Recover the amino acids of this structure.
C-alpha cells in the first residue's frame, strides 16, 4: 500500500496495543451491517480514518480505495466514467464502507450473472493480528503469485485482519438495460429460469415474489431488443425499473423489512443459497427468489433446524440474516475437517484472537 | 531443501516384505541424504504402498518413473521415490494416509503441462499421478454445470457439453492436454479471461483430500458455501493445500457467433494505446491479444495465416454473442481501432477465417520452438497502460543480454508472454537467458504488476517471489500453508521461498551488480 499516513499509523498502533493487552476489538466502518453475523464483541475500533480513493484509471478497469471510503463515494467516482461495481453490494444504510463491503462479501441482484465480491477483488492490504501490514494480489486481473489471500479475506467478516486498502475490478455500464415481468407461480418461474439459463441471453438479474417474475436484461442495444422480443412478458417502465432493483439490492423492499414487532413474534429472515435448478423449497412462510434460482430468501417462524435441513437436502446452506434468536448459529455448520482449517487460519492471521472474535463462528 | 549428496544412478530396491524396522527408519525425517538412506526410504514406502495398491499402480524403477521427472518446464528434473497411479478416491485417501504416516512428501500431478515446475517430483517424495481420474461424471444442462474427475482434459469438458449448447470458458493454450485438476491448482486463464474470467470464476466446487487422507469439499453446488471462502484459496494453490479429485465447473451457453478483427499498427506504442481505447469505450472484448513483429514473423512461417509482416504490432480483437450484438460491437471496435491509428484492419468473414487469425497466436510457442533450439516463456502481468513501456524495456534487454525475444501478450488483461530464444547447450546463453527472465519479472513488479499471471510460481519463480513479497507476507503465506498442511508434506519447496533463499537471492543481486535498471524509479 502506497500510503503511510497518520490514520494508518494510528490504526497499526491500536492493533499493536490490543495484541499486547489481549483485548478483542470490533472492527467497525459505517456500522451498516452490524446486524449481520454473530453478535459483535470487543472495543469498537473505528477504521474510517483510513479513507479515500487511492487510484482509479478507467481504462485499467480497476479502482483502488482505502477501506474507510464510503460505497456511495466509490460508486459516484465510478459513475463519472460510466463504470460501476458489477456485484451491486447491498447498501443497508448510508455510510457503509468499502472495507465492510469486502469483509461482508454480500452481493446484489446481478451476482449470478456477473460474479461475487470476491470474484472482483484483485488485491488488498491487510493489517493482521501481529500489527503487520501485508499486501496480497495486486491491481491486475491475472495474478497467481502466492496464495490468493485477498479473495480469502472477502467475506471473512474481519476475523483474519483489518482491510486497509482494496483493489477492485470494475466494469463499464452496459449500453442498454430492460426489465421484463411475467405473471407466474414459483414452479413455473423456476422452469423458465432453468430454460433460459442454458441459452445465450443477456439476463443480468432475476427476482420472483408473490406470483411475479422480474427479469433484468443488460448488454448491447441490439441484444436487449432481440431478447425482449424472444422472451415476451411485459416491459417495466424505465423509470420504475431502477428504483425497484435498488430496493431489492438494498433490502428496502417490503419483503426484507423485518421490524421489531416481527422479530419479537419470532419471525426471521433467512438466506438460502442452493443450486440454481433446485425445485421449489417446501417451507412455511414467504419466499423471494433471486440469482436465477440460486438465492432464496425466506420470511418464516420455522425453526433453524427445519430451515437448515431443507437447505442441506438441496445441497445448499442457510444463513440467518435477521432474527431475534441467534442461538442456533447464524451461519451453516461446518464439518470437523473444514472447521479445523478455519481454526488454523485464525491462528495464522490473528494468533491472539483480537479481531471480531466469534463474529463468524463462536469458536473463531 | 534437502542436501543432495548421492549420484543420479537408479536406486533399484530389493523386494522384501515390510518390517516394523524399515518403517521406523523412515519415520525420522533424514536431513542428510545418502544413496543408502534414500534406498531404505524408498523400500519402506514402496512396501507400505503395496498393501493398499495393486502392483501395476506403483512405479519405482528409474526407467518407469523417468516420464514423470519433469513437467513442461523441462529444464528442471528430479527422480521421485515412487510414482503411484490410484484409480479410486479410496486409493488416493489410502496413499495420503500412508505417506502422512511415513512423513513422505506427496506431489500431485495432472497432465504434466505446467510451465513453472509445479509438478516437479521431490527426491524423497511420492508423485501422485491422477491420470486415471479421467471420467466426466455428469453434465447437468438445467443448472449449467459439469461434475468431472480431476484428470479430465480441459477441452474434453467443452466437447462433452457441446451437445447442450454449453462450454467451459477458461481455455489455456494447452487445453487439449491439460487437466481440470491442474487448472484448479494453477488458476489457469486463457485468451478469453477478460470477459469470462479465470478458473476461479468458473469453478463451483472442489472435492478432494487433505494431506492426512481425510475427505474434504471446498465450495458447493450453490454459488457460495458457509464459512471462509476456502475454495478461493485452494484454487491456484499449486497442489500445496489439498489434493483435488473431483471438480464441479460452471458451463456457459456457447455464443451464437464470434468474429475477430486483426489490426496492424506501425508502432507498439500506438497498439498499446489502442488497447486502452477499446476498454475506455466501454467494450469488453471476448479476446484481446497482441503480437510483436518478431513473433508475427515466427508464426507466419509456421502457420501461413496471412499476417501483416510489416506491422510493428498486431492486435487480435474478438467479439462474441448474438449476430446483432456482434455486428454492433465489431462496428464500434473498428471505429475505435481506426481512430487509434491502425494501419490495416481485417474482420473475419467466417469461422474458418477467424480460426486462421487465431492459429498463429495459439501456435506462438511451437513457432518459437521452430526458430530457436530453446525458448523460455515468461508470464508476468502489468497494468495495461505500461505495455508500450514494457516492450521498450524488453528491446533494451535484448541488447543487454545479447538474446532475441518474441512477444505475445494477452493485451486485454496485461498478461505478457515474452519468449526468450536461447540455446540450452550453451551454458553462457542459458545463464544470460535466466538473467533476462529475472529482469523482465522484476521490471514487471516495478511497473505495478506481478511475476506470474497464469503459469504459477512452481520452482521457476521462487526467487522472483522474494522481489514481490516482503518477509512478513511470505511468513503469512507459510501460515496459510500450515493451516491446511501442518507438516508441510504436500508439494514442499514450491511457491513460497524460504527466508534464507530470499536473503541469498538479494545478496547475489548486489554482489553481481546486476540490479536491473538502476535508473528506473522504484515505487
Amino acid at each position: 500500500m502506497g500510503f503511510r499516513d497518520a490514520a494508518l499509523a494510528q490504526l497499526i498502533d491500536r492493533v499493536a496495543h490490543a495484541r499486547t493487552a489481549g483485548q478483542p476489538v470490533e472492527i467497525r466502518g459505517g456500522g451498516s451491517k452490524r446486524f449481520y453475523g454473530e453478535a459483535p464483541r470487543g472495543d469498537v475500533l473505528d477504521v474510517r480514518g483510513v479513507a479515500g480513493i487511492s487510484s482509479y484509471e478507467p481504462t485499467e478497469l480497476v479502482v483502488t480505495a482505502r477501506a474507510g471510503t464510503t460505497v456511495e463515494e466509490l460508486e459516484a467516482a465510478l459513475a463519472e466514467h460510466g463504470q460501476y461495481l458489477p456485484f451491486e453490494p447491498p447498501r443497508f444504510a448510508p455510510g457503509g464502507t468499502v472495507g465492510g463491503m469486502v469483509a461482508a462479501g454480500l452481493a446484489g441482484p446481478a451476482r449470478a450473472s456477473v460474479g461475487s465480491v470476491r470474484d472482483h477483488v484483485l488485491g488488498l492490504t491487510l493489517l493482521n493480528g501481529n500489527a503487520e501490514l501485508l499486501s496480497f494480489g495486486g491491481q491486475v486481473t491475472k495474478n497467481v503469485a502466492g496464495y490468493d489471500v485477498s479473495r480469502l479475506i472477502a467475506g471473512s467478516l474481519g476475523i483474519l485482519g483489518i482491510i486497509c486498502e482494496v483493489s477492485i475490478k470494475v466494469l463499464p455500464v452496459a449500453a442498454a438495460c430492460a426489465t421484463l415481468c411475467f405473471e407466474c407461480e414459483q414452479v413455473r418461474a423456476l422452469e423458465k429460469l432453468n430454460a433460459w439459463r442454458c441459452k445465450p441471453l443477456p439476463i443480468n438479474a432475476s427476482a420472483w415474489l408473490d406470483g411475479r417474475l422480474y427479469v433484468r436484461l443488460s448488454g448491447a442495444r441490439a441484444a436487449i431488443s432481440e431478447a425482449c422480443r424472444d422472451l415476451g412478458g411485459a416491459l417495466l417502465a424505465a423509470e420504475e425499473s431502477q428504483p425497484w432493483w435498488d430496493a431489492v439490492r438494498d433490502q428496502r423492499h417490503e419483503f426484507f423489512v423485518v421490524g421489531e414487532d416481527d422479530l419479537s413474534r419470532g419471525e426471521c429472515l433467512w438466506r438460502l443459497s442452493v443450486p440454481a435448478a433446485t425445485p421449489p423449497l417446501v417451507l412455511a412462510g414467504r419466499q423471494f427468489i433471486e440469482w436465477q434460482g440460486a438465492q432464496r430468501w425466506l420470511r418464516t417462524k420455522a425453526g433453524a433446524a427445519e430451515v437448515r435441513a431443507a437447505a442441506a437436502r438441496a445441497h445448499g446452506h442457510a444463513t440467518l440474516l435477521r432474527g431475534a434468536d441467534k442461538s442456533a448459529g447464524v451461519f451453516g455448520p461446518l464439518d470437523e475437517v473444514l472447521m479445523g482449517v478455519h481454526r488454523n487460519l485464525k491462528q495464522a492471521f490473528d494468533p491472539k484472537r483480537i479481531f471480531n472474535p466469534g463474529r463468524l463462528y463462536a469458536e473463531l | 531443501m534437502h542436501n543432495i549428496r548421492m549420484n543420479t544412478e537408479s536406486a533399484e530396491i530389493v523386494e522384501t516384505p515390510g518390517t516394523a524396522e524399515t518403517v521406523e527408519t523412515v519415520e525420522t525425517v533424514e536431513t542428510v541424504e545418502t544413496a543408502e538412506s534414500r534406498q531404505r526410504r524408498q523400500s519402506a514406502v514402496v512396501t507400505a504402498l503395496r498393501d493398499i495398491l495393486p502392483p501395476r499402480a506403483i512405479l519405482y524403477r528409474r526407467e518407469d518413473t523417468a516420464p514423470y521427472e519433469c513437467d513442461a518446464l523441462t529444464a528442471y528434473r528430479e527422480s521421485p521415490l515412487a510414482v503411484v497411479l490410484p484409480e479410486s478416491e479410496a486409493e488416493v485417501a489410502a496413499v495420503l494416509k500412508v505417506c502422512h504416516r511415513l512423513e513422505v512428501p506427496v506431489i500431485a500431478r495432472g497432465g504434466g503441462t505446467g510451465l513453472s515446475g509445479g509438478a516437479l517430483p521431490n527426491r524423497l517424495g511420492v508423485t501422485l499421478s491422477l491420470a486415471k481420474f479421467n471420467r466426466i461424471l455428469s453434465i447437468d444442462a438445467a443448472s449449467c454445470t459439469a461434475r468431472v474427475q480431476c484428470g479430465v482434459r480441459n477441452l474434453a469438458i467443452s466437447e462433452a457439453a457441446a451437445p447442450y449448447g454449453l462450454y467451459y470458458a477458461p481455455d489455456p493454450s494447452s487445453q487439449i492436454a491439460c487437466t481440470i485438476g491442474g487448472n484448479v491448482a494453477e488458476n489457469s486463464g486463457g485468451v478469453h479471461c477478460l470477459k469470462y474470467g479465470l478458473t476461479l470464476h468458473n469453478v463451483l466446487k472442489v472435492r478432494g483430500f487433505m494431506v492426512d487422507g481425510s475427505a474434504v469439499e471446498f465450495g458447493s453446488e450453490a454459488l457460495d458455501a458457509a464459512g471462509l471462502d476456502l475454495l478461493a484459496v485452494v484454487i491456484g494453490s499449486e497442489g500445496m493445500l489439498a489434493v483435488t479429485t473431483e471438480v464441479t465447473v460452471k458451463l456457459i451457453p456457447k455464443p451464437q457467433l464470434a468474429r475477430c478483427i486483426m489490426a496492424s499498427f506501425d508502432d507498439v506504442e500506438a497498439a498499446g494505446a489502442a488497447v486502452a481505447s477499446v476498454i475506455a469505450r466501454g467494450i469488453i472484448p471476448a479476446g484481446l491479444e497482441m503480437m510483436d513483429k518478431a513473433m508475427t514473423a515466427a508464426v507466419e512461417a509456421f502457420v501461413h495465416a496471412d499476417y501483416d509482416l510489416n506491422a510493428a504490432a498486431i492486435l487480435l480483437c474478438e467479439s462474441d454473442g448474438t449476430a446483432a450484438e456482434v455486428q454492433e460491437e465489431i462496428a464500434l471496435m473498428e471505429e475505435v481501432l481506426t481512430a487509434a491509428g491502425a494501419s490495416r484492419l481485417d474482420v473475419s468473414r467466417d469461422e474458418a477465417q477467424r480460426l486462421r487469425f487465431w492459429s498463429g497466436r495459439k501456435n506462438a510457442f511451437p513457432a518459437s520452438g521452430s526458430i530457436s533450439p530453446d525458448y523460455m516463456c515468461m508470464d508476468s502481468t502489468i497494468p495495461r497502460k505500461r505495455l508500450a513501456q514494457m516492450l521498450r524495456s524488453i528491446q533494451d534487454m535484448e541488447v543487454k543480454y545479447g538474446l532475441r525475444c518474441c512477444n505475445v501478450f494477452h493485451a486485454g488483461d496485461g498478461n505478457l508472454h515474452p519468449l526468450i530464444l536461447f540455446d540450452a547447450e550453451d551454458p553462457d546463453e542459458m545463464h544470460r537467458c535466466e538473467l533476462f527472465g529475472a529482469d523482465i519479472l522484476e521490471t514487471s513488479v516495478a511497473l505495478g504488476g506481478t511475476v506470474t499471471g497464469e503459469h504459477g510460481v512452481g520452482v521457476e519463480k521462487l526467487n522472483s517471489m522474494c522481489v514481490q513479497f516482503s518477509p512478513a507476507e511470505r511468513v503469512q503465506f507459510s501460515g496459510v500453508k500450515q493451516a491446511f498442511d501442518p507438516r508441510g508434506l504436500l508439494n514442499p519447496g514450491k511457491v513460497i521461498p524460504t527466508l534464507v533463499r530470499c536473503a541469498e537471492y538479494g545478496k547475489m543481486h548486489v554482489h553481481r551488480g546486476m540490479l536491473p535498471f538502476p535508473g528506473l524509479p522504484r515505487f
Notes: Residues 25 and 42 of chain A are 4 Å apart (CA to CA).
